[in-house]
Design brief:
Number of strands: 8
Structural class: alpha+beta
Helix content: 40-55%
Radius of gyration: 21 Å
Largest sheet: 4 strands, mixed
Shape: globular
């Protein structure tokens, strides 16, 4: 039987724009749209704007665009900043079958190199599909250690595989590049997210930068273990790694077609609960101005990270990783968008009071099972004795419970417009639809600069 890395690398090498199913290409355009929206919106955070400025000043040459700004930097630098911004607001897509959030791991580094090299739009989309596949499959084959965060670990080899594909490397070279990149995987924990330490947002930024660097290192002559993923993911970052699982079903439906789009601006582990909260509130005809009528809210989940059940959060990032806060904010405001996790919402006494009436019951399902089959139950008890319940087994926006494409477009417009302006946001929508037609992707990227700076 071929080694799993040979099989995976051969898949990457053999894929072409015309050999991939049209559904995978369509999914790659939607994932590009969603990811660029997350990057553009996250770039407005002050620390990300300062990082963009620093990177442009210190990482030359100015060959790749830092999205939604007038700055440019070396491809590694642009990948670092764009991936960091894309995760800052917790709006980036993901994949529950593995890899955590493959698009924000792969797209920033790939886009930076594609711009630098003048690659075509069709080649970019092809490389995105296969890089996404590598990231998701390596992540899915890993049983991560309990405090290992899903961001960043599998991003470097996915980015490197996508860039190797873009540069026309053969299967042997692609395998070697994956090994070099896996050897550079950063060690990232959940603790920073629970505490609200925004260095956590650098997790995908670092892996994107290292994925770009890995290809350059290989071309310089650096070598790695013959099976670096098994070594790194099976002994350090994970309790085990199953190479055969990494290629099981490879060639069937592409992983990029099995993704989820986030509709709530917080950690994915909250989403089934928030769907249930919205359903239960709707059934009870409970509006935000009537939250004082709530006596208690009980949430039941099959599994949950202990850190997400902590005390009332003190900042935006911590709020996004706090289940009880997310429930209280959703009921008190009727929203789950980026605004309800801002400092002014965290300071809202109504949300704070309701937080103390939310309790969480955690089952004993294994983490792996719960992540792949997320579910939640919600019970809202009113002071008049009425009870409203909801049970969610599949999250809206997920594979198996798809949303209309108009909602994906609407999410992009909501996220991108404050950063790009209405005109450039609309230009980006039009250009993404025709992305495969660009002979040089730089013509596409012209539409996602900072609107004010380019006017």
């Amino acid at each position: 039987m071929p080694h799993y890395l040979d099989t995976l690398s051969r898949f990457v090498a053999d894929a072409t724009f015309h050999s991939l199913p049209p559904s995978a290409i369509a999914a790659s355009r939607d994932v590009t749209l969603d990811t660029l929206g997350a990057i553009a919106s996250g770039m407005l955070e002050p620390e990300n704007l300062r990082l963009a400025e620093w990177t442009a000043e210190n990482m030359a040459p100015a060959e790749s665009t830092i999205i939604a700004t007038h700055h440019r930097a070396a491809a590694m630098g642009a990948a670092l900043v764009n991936a960091t911004a894309g995760v800052a607001l917790e709006m980036d897509e993901g994949n529950r079958f593995g890899g955590g959030h493959p698009a924000i791991h792969v797209l920033p580094g790939l886009l930076a190199v594609a711009e630098r090299d003048g690659a075509s739009g069709a080649d970019f989309l092809t490389a995105l599909v296969v890089g996404y596949e590598v990231t998701s499959r390596l992540g899915g084959a890993t049983v991560a250690r309990p405090n290992v965060h899903s961001h960043g670990h599998w991003g470097a080899p996915g980015t490197a595989a996508a860039i190797a594909k873009l540069r026309g490397m053969d299967a042997s070279d692609i395998r070697a590049v994956i090994n070099v990149a896996a050897s550079m995987s950063p060690a990232n924990t959940w603790t920073n997210a629970f505490a609200g330490a925004t260095v956590r947002n650098l997790y995908p930024g670092r892996s994107a930068m290292q994925g770009v660097m890995a290809v350059a290192l290989y071309e310089c002559g650096f070598t790695a273990l013959d099976d670096a993923p098994s070594d790194v993911y099976g002994t350090i970052l994970g309790d085990s790694f199953d190479g055969e699982a990494a290629v099981a079903g490879l060639g069937d439906e592409c992983r990029i077609e099995q993704n989820y789009f986030k509709l709530h601006a917080c950690c994915r582990y909250n989403h089934a609960t928030l769907d249930g909260v919205q359903d239960a509130a709707d059934c009870a005809r409970l509006s935000p101005d009537a939250v004082d009528d709530i006596d208690s809210v009980t949430v039941s989940v099959p599994w949950m990270l202990d850190g997400m059940l902590g005390d009332y959060p003190q900042n935006m990032l911590a709020a996004k990783f706090n289940l009880r806060y997310a429930v209280a904010a959703a009921l008190a405001t009727g929203r789950t968008d980026i605004t309800v996790f801002r400092t002014d919402s965290i300071a809202d006494p109504t949300i704070r009071a309701l937080f103390d009436r939310v309790s969480v019951q955690v089952g004993d399902a294994p983490q792996r099972q719960s992540v792949r089959d997320p579910s939640a139950g919600v019970e809202i008890r009113l002071r008049n004795g009425a009870v409203s319940r909801s049970r969610v087994r599949t999250i809206r926006g997920d594979y198996g419970k798809r949303i209309p494409r108009s909602e994906i477009v609407g999410k992009f417009q909501y996220l991108a417009t404050p950063a790009l302006g209405p005109q450039r946001t609309q230009q980006a929508l039009v250009r993404i639809e025709a992305l495969q037609d660009y002979a040089d992707i730089r013509g596409f990227i012209e539409g996602i600069y900072d609107a004010e700076a380019q006017s």
